[in-house]
User: Fold these one by one.
Assistant:
Number 1:
Amino acid sequence: MKRSFYQAVYQVVLMIPPGRVTTYGRIANALGSPRASRAVGYALFNTPDGLELPWHRVVNGRGEVSARGGGERPLRQRALLESEGIAFNDDGRIDLRKNCWYPPPCEELWAEQPK
DNA sequence: CGTATGACGAGCC
DNA sequence: AGGCTCGCCATAC
């Protein structure tokens, strides 16, 4: 498989255990680019069809669903997370204290891909 | 190659 | 406290 930053992001997301959530920034940090949180979000935005990706387990740094794109995405995400036992506050936020998951360092996941 | 975009984050007002 | 702006990084065009 061609190793791009996106692919690396997908692999990290795939290793998120059910019932746990992580943030874009943490994924970016795990990949060796702590400032690439935007790119991480963009990677999920370009999620290829046919790939079963638990993208719903990725939230922003405050534990809230990112609703920048459209209206239905966050709703689906919330429903999926709730079905996994993740509780939402009245503000629509997740308790990262309980459900947070820190991805292990995965720099080598894509670092060996020369430009 | 330069510009634009995007599911973010931290900082400033 | 809440909202807005700038910055960072990786692709698409």
Number 2:
Amino acid sequence: MPELPEVETTCRGIKPFVEQQTIVDMNVWQSKLRWPIPDNLALTVKNQTMRSVSRRGKYIIIELSNHHYLIIHLGMSGNLRVLTDGQPRRKHDHWQIIFTGGVLRYHDPRRFGSLHYSSSIERHPLLASLGIEPLTDTFDGDYLYRCSRNKSQAVKGFIMDSKITVGVGNIYANESLFLAGISPIRPAKKISIERYRQLATHIKQVLERAIEQGGTTLRDYVNSDGDQGYFQQTLNVYGRAELPCVNCVRPLKLIKQNQRATVYCTHCQR
DNA sequence: CTACGAACCTGCCTGC
DNA sequence: TGCAGGCAGGTTCGTA
């Protein structure tokens, strides 16, 4: 997926087009996503006005005038775009919302994304136990330190755990650990509060920078307005296995943790 | 509780 | 050129 910066970029991209617009119709071409799209959703949302667009973790939330919500996840390869020029449906376009003034269309080759309809955000089963947002003041080194005291789990898995915090995906976990000089395989409970403060700062920085730059572009990610992001140019470790560390020039090491690629410098990260 | 693998999918790249 | 295998940004679920 799109990691948090891409989701945030998508949110910001579609927001000015869809907020306060009324849904005229909806098409569901493929309801088999990560979870099935509810039957008859088109009938349910027709004539509703989209009151607001927001984000919780990697979920995009559209508030409707009936006080229910559309909850959208982009999975690994999804994107949401606003189209105003009547573009024909492409391969892997799975649903669209037609509103006064345009179309909000979902495209997702791998179909790991989802679309939910719910009366509540915080009580929705997939969102209820999410950890805190990394870009808020309550997320800091002290918080990470407190949460980690009984965790023998490797720190990389710990910061990617959505019950702790949301939105730190594989790319940004690798990058922030590099910037903080912390080995991804170190047990979470063995890291000092000072180092967690460093880590929290770098997690915020790396996410904020990526948002500023419009999100990382990989393969099939496209911004909501169709432009390509360019954050990938500044990645220090992700996708750079065996290449020289930007700091010490030694080759970066590639390992697998929880079936995900971890790239790090065994010299600079301890 | 943790850890791990499988599962959901398609596309792309590498190597034979 | 074709085909098999491995890899990919996420997340949940089942089993040990």
